[in-house]
Design goal:
331 residues, alpha/beta, Rossmann fold, 2 domains, seven-stranded mixed sheet, elongated
Length: 331
């Protein structure tokens, strides 16, 4: 089976996924009785090719590998406003279902339609965002995957403690002006007491704030640092990581892509392709007749990545049991 290919442009981005049987826009329009459902995939496509490719694979595995059975359009939307414009156009053209990537596009879709099925892939906490009534019974036209609600936060802290068994005090760098950070921080505060971890919150808006916060902390204050605003590490890994290394503080993150960043000892989060597959399979169930209101919100499998190079430079001994559970180990 050949891998799906996603071809895009600034104005219009169309999915051309190529499989053994090919998932292409149908060569000729089917009759009205057998019209293929139309699906819009919208969000910040650039930089998340693995996630979007996983959506395609999930649909294939659930029975939508035939071009005559589905029509998919992807739109790159870097903001909620761009997503809303793309969604309004798709709704006007008769789209049957929408898959949104991350919170802003999900909020935009919810504002545009209350009837067309929406699968979010993912959002931090869909209950807190009022996208669903509850994880178990969404009750509306949205369902999908939650990546940082209370349950996900509990799983992430448990993974971190497997890598750092002596973790008692955890500094958390977060941006209160960034809604996903606010939600995840609130959920961490809810679950941390039951895990034996005390949180030490530090608000940061940019990399300069992160470096300043790290310079004000030491091993006498905390045992490790969890960076919620991962864009800080993506933009300034050397500066942020260097500050943590100077203070002998291990960095923990939720994005597997950042496990190689300076100072990062562990990453606990979903594999982007597997996350996309999960969302694709959920969408397939809806296209086959299931209602979002009846599909419980799902949680991704959190995979563990460990950077032994960073651990060694910080004098951290990672337990063998954690290494055995890790899907990726940087030596």
């Amino acid at each position: 089976m050949r891998a799906p290919v996603w071809i895009g442009s600034r104005g219009r981005t169309a999915l051309v996924a190529v499989f053994a049987g090919t998932l292409l826009l149908a060569p000729r329009p089917p009759s009205s009785a057998e019209r293929a459902p139309r699906v819009l995939v919208v969000g910040p496509i650039d930089g998340y090719g693995a996630l979007v490719g996983g959506v395609s694979e999930g649909l294939q595995s659930a029975g939508f590998a035939d071009a005559s059975r589905i029509r998919i359009d992807t739109r790159n939307a870097r903001s909620g406003d761009e997503a809303k414009a793309a969604i309004e156009t798709a709704v006007g053209a008769g789209v049957d279902a929408i898959l949104t990537i991350f919170g802003p596009s999900t909020q935009a879709a919810r504002a545009v339609t209350t009837t067309i099925p929406i699968v979010f892939c993912p959002v931090a906490d869909p209950v807190a965002a009022k996208f669903v009534a509850s994880n178990e019974a969404p009750a509306g036209n949205l369902t999908g995957v939650a990546s940082a609600d209370a349950e996900a936060s509990r799983r992430r802290l448990a993974a971190f403690r497997r890598v750092l068994p002596e973790l008692k005090r955890l500094a958390v760098l977060f941006d209160p002006g960034f809604p996903p950070d606010r939600v995840q921080m609130a959920n961490l505060e809810r679950v941390a007491p039951s895990t034996g971890v005390t949180l030490v919150a530090r608000t940061v808006a940019d990399e300069n704030g992160a470096v300043a916060a790290l310079r004000g902390l030491g091993r006498i204050d905390v045992d490790a640092v969890f960076v919620l605003k991962e864009a800080l590490l993506r933009r300034a890994a050397a500066d942020v990581g260097g500050a943590a290394l100077a203070q002998k503080l291990p960095i923990l993150v939720g994005d597997q892509d950042l496990v190689t960043a300076p100072g990062v000892v562990a990453a606990a989060g979903p594999d982007q392709r597997e996350l996309g597959k999960r969302c694709g399979r959920m969408m397939a169930r809806i296209l086959k007749g299931a209602k979002p209101a009846d599909l419980s919100v799902e949680h991704p499998v959190f995979e563990l990545g460990i950077n032994l190079k960073s651990a060694a430079s910080l004098g951290v001994a990672v337990p063998e049991g954690a290494l055995e559970q890790a899907v990726r180990v940087i030596r």
